[in-house]
Write a structure and sequence with these properties.
With 236 residues, the protein is of the alpha+beta class. The chain is built from seven helices and twelve strands. It has a domain of 81 residues: 2-Layer Sandwich (Alpha-Beta Plaits). The strands form three sheets. A five-stranded antiparallel sheet has the order 7-12-9-11-10. It is globular and about 45 Å long.
Length: 236
Amino acid sequence: MKLRHLPFVLALALLAVPGSAQGEGHKKSPPVPVKGTAQAASAGARAQERLELTLHVTGLSAENAESVHTRLTALTRSLYTCEACHVHQAQAGKCPHCASELKSTRKPEFTNVRPTAADGTLQLGLPAAVPTRLSEIERALKDVALTLDAAQMPIPGPAQLVLAGGKAGDVATIDKLLQEARLYASVHAAWDAAGSEIHVQVAPGSMVPTRGKIDGALAGASVHVRDVVWGLAPKT
């Protein structure tokens, strides 16, 4: 065979071989289902709902940091849950999703506790979809001899601000003052007759305001933040 015919013969040989590079280049591998993908995505979404608070406290030292971590980690709360639907609430009843009876259980008060004596900060993780009050955090810190710097207390959204010192007629003013301050992406104030207080639902914005900034924005209405609640189910 003459050498000038060799490239042509090699090309024919390649076409005749199954699974050649040319044939494989046009084949698309079918997608391989990954077991647990949906569950993993759901778990990731739930993880993003958790809030992390970094608190400035006094009384924290290298000597008591380990004790603070141990005691705060050991705190639990009584809840009624449906693990399948990830429902957690303080009252007994039925699951709003699958209608099964909620089971009584105890859950950690905080999902993460990290004291740092060097800069006097305490990082606390709040559980998702479980109501946690600022007043509960303050009591927990008092039990371990720590004092919270209230003015520097970060108050991220979503949350419910509980305002004291106001009246039903102050709701519109509260709305206006907080919207003008642009501390949150959105605010909605309402009068709570049962507690004689104003509740403000706030959505997270581009910043995390402190309690001091919020009280400053509300100074013109003669009200102040008495409590904050995180983890409330959104109202429909």
